[in-house]
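Supplementary Methods. Inverse-folding protocol.

Structures were first reduced to a discrete structure-token string of length 322. This string, shown here, constituted the complete conditioning input.
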């Protein structure tokens, strides 16, 4: 019994030391850049890190569009952003990344109603949620975290290209994770259910986002659009709810205390979207508000091309449409 108590004490003390180190080494985005007259779109912008990112841009004077699949959450998030920033130019639109139909309707609406799109923050995602196929025949985790984001970005590219200028390119920021390092891209088994562990599926989806960034950056050379990917670090958000209500709340609390709460987790995405230095590179991986290095697999140019071709087929678009 005494040994168990000693072990618990060691774990608690160790956790406190880890938390102290994390809190003292987390960097903050220092850019004070204003975005008056510009438009920013944040998927998953109604809770967690996305809400913090959207609110920050509202404070900077931008027109902010937030998107999520839940009406109540969306309206509540919109009110929170307006209340904190005093910026009334905040719009909520429904977007369900697990439905290609929803993505297409959302993108068509944006193209029809918006004259410009300066920044696209692909923040929305799920954790180790259900391992099943969607109505589109795609694995749920893969579709929400990667395929839906892939299709949305492709459909919004014309507006991003129209908006970008030599002195101020449009920016795309994809939210990945350190867990991309355990990810695998097996083209034949990308969407299989009951094949991967859920945590592996999550890692796979986050690896795909980095590979997508690498290939898209290559294809965007010569245009006034840049794309980068960010690793926000370990953040206490509602993404842990997929592990169960009680345990998920516990993990959210622990990660928020020991690592980062959503505002801290939002900083690297804000850095990639606003800083002058980040605006000069494309196809790069950022972590803790500075350039980092993705896994060697994530930098595999051939794999990125193969994934691109397969993704086009699965979401039913072609290069000619872009």
């Amino acid at each position: 019994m005494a040994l168990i108590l000693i072990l618990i004490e060691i774990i608690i003390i160790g956790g406190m030391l880890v938390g102290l180190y994390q809190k003292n080494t987390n960097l903050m985005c220092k850019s004070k850049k204003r975005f008056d007259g510009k438009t920013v779109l944040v998927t998953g912008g109604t809770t967690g890190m996305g809400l913090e990112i959207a609110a920050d841009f509202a404070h900077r004077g931008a027109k902010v569009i937030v998107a999520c699949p839940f009406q109540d959450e969306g309206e509540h998030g919109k009110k929170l952003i307006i209340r904190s920033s005093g910026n009334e130019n905040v719009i909520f639109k429904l977007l369900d990344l697990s439905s290609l139909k929803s993505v297409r309707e959302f993108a068509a609406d944006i193209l029809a109603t918006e004259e410009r799109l300066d920044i696209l923050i692909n923040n929305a995602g799920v954790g180790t949620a259900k391992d099943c196929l969607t109505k589109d025949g795609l694995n749920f985790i893969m579709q929400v975290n990667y395929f839906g984001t892939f299709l949305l970005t492709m459909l919004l590219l014309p507006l991003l290209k129209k908006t970008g200028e030599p002195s101020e390119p449009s920016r795309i920021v994809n939210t990945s994770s350190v867990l991309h390092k355990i990810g695998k891209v097996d083209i034949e088994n990308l969407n299989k259910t009951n094949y991967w562990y859920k945590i592996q599926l999550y890692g796979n989806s986050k690896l795909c986002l980095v590979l997508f960034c690498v290939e898209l950056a290559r294809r965007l050379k010569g245009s006034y659009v840049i794309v980068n990917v960010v690793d926000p670090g370990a953040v206490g958000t509602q993404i842990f709810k997929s592990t169960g209500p009680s345990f998920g709340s516990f993990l959210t609390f622990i990660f928020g205390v020991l690592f980062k709460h959503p505002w801290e987790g939002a900083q690297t995405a804000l850095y990639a979207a606003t800083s002058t230095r980040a605006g000069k590179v494309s196809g790069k991986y950022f972590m803790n508000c500075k350039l980092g290095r993705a896994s060697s697999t994530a930098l595999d140019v051939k794999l990125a091309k193969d994934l691109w071709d397969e993704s086009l087929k699965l979401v039913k678009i072609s290069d000619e449409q872009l």
